[in-house]
Design a protein that fits this description.
single chain; 371 residues; alpha+beta; Rossmann fold; 2 domains; eight-stranded antiparallel beta sheet; six-stranded mixed beta sheet; globular
């Protein structure tokens, strides 16, 4: 489980160090930095797949994503990191050397570090990268050169030797298990509304196309009682039925008083979105971290208590971060889950800050130095 997320110089996140627990909800007014925090978490996950450089380039390069307020006179540096009880990781992106390539929007990885424990200390370092050179610490505590990487390759994705760097391999697979769900489609042409070839689906896809198969998988090999309860909490007396026509699966919802079950094509956007969250959060294969961005979108306020119950149940198996505008959802989570970590963001002079967090309240955090 992650204890800390740290971001520096990304959009309005001049310096943000967040404490995390099992169930976390991030709220705040429009423009306070919630979306930037969500994107920063996505970039961290992309690092394990060697996709962070491309993602930053698609945002217009570092010049478009960097903090634009005061205190930007030093070298361009966008930093992302996280830490838990066992491992921590940080990466520092900078500008490419002018004239060496036409890919001028691609940032370069200037430094990376992996360490043991929740706080970076020289004695806790397990792997460090300065420029292209990656050093690993062996069992005797001695450093050796493990690789020379290209500036757009992350050591988290490129070094996977289970003998020489087991910690990097463990950390990489852990980060690759993170899941992000952001505005899954529920429009009339949404994939979730159409019958799809059904195969056992342990994890709902990001576009929700395999919703029917995911729900059927929960019913057969997951927590079928929780599935039934989640549907009944939202739509009293209703139940989900999966229609199988020659291997093509379709979601239907049978409701009291109706002579037939409603197909996915007939469901309201809110009803379909709620069923998507059911499939995502009751997965038989929980993620290390699940991040939901504005899950309340399209939902009627009466569905928010049921959604809160889903999130609270999921946080017992997977660390959850919810980014939301809905104060009702925050209140329901606090009511149903005693250990909710409610983080309210605000903006002060263009800089995102955590309401009520003073310097002494901030988790201990240190960035690795550039070489």
């Amino acid at each position: 489980m992650l204890d800390t997320i740290a971001v520096e110089n990304y959009r309005s996140l001049r310096r943000l160090v967040l404490p995390l627990r099992g169930c976390n909800v991030v709220t705040g007014p429009n423009g306070s930095g919630k979306s930037s925090l969500y994107r920063a978490l996505r970039l961290l996950a992309d690092s394990a797949r060697n996709g962070a450089v491309n993602a930053l380039a698609r945002e217009g390069g570092l010049s478009s994503t960097m903090w634009a307020g005061p205190g930007t006179n030093g070298p361009v540096s966008l930093k992302l990191g996280f830490a838990g009880e066992d491992f921590g990781y940080a990466v520092d992106f900078g500008m490419p050397v002018p004239g060496e390539s036409e890919f001028n929007l691609d940032p370069e990885i200037k430094s990376e570090a992996v360490w043991a424990g929740p706080v970076l200390r020289p004695s806790a370092l397990l792997a460090q990268r300065s420029g292209p050179v990656v050093l690993l610490r062996d069992d005797e505590g001695e450093w050796r050169t493990a690789a020379t990487l290209r500036p757009f390759d992350s050591m988290l994705s490129e070094i996977a030797d289970p003998q020489a760097a087991p910690e990097l391999l463990t950390l990489r697979e852990r980060v690759r298990s993170w899941r992000f769900y952001d505005h899954v489609r529920t429009d009339s042409a949404a994939p979730a509304r159409r019958p799809q070839i059904g195969t056992r689906t342990m994890i709902l896809s990001h576009d929700g196309a395999d919703l029917a198969a995911a729900l059927q998988t929960i019913a057969e090999v997951g927590d079928s009682a929780a599935l039934a309860q989640a549907v009944d909490d939202a739509f009293a007396g209703s139940r989900v039925e999966i229609r199988n026509s020659d291997g093509r699966f379709e979601v239907t919802l049978r409701q009291p008083g109706m002579l037939r079950a409603l197909t996915a094509a007939e469901l309201s956007d809110g009803t379909l979105r709620y069923l998507l969250w059911v499939a995502a959060l009751l997965t038989p294969r929980p993620a290390g971290l699940t991040v939901l961005n504005e899950p309340e979108a399209s939902l009627h306020p009466d569905l928010l208590p049921a959604l809160a119950a889903l999130i609270a149940r999921s946080s017992e198996q997977s660390q959850v971060v919810v980014v939301t505008h809905a104060e009702t959802l925050v209140a329901e989570l606090r009511r149903q889950q005693r250990d909710v970590n409610a983080i309210e963001l605000t903006k002060e002079l263009g800089q995102t800050a955590i309401v009520g967090q003073g310097l002494l309240d901030e988790p201990s955090w240190h960035w690795p130095a550039r070489g």
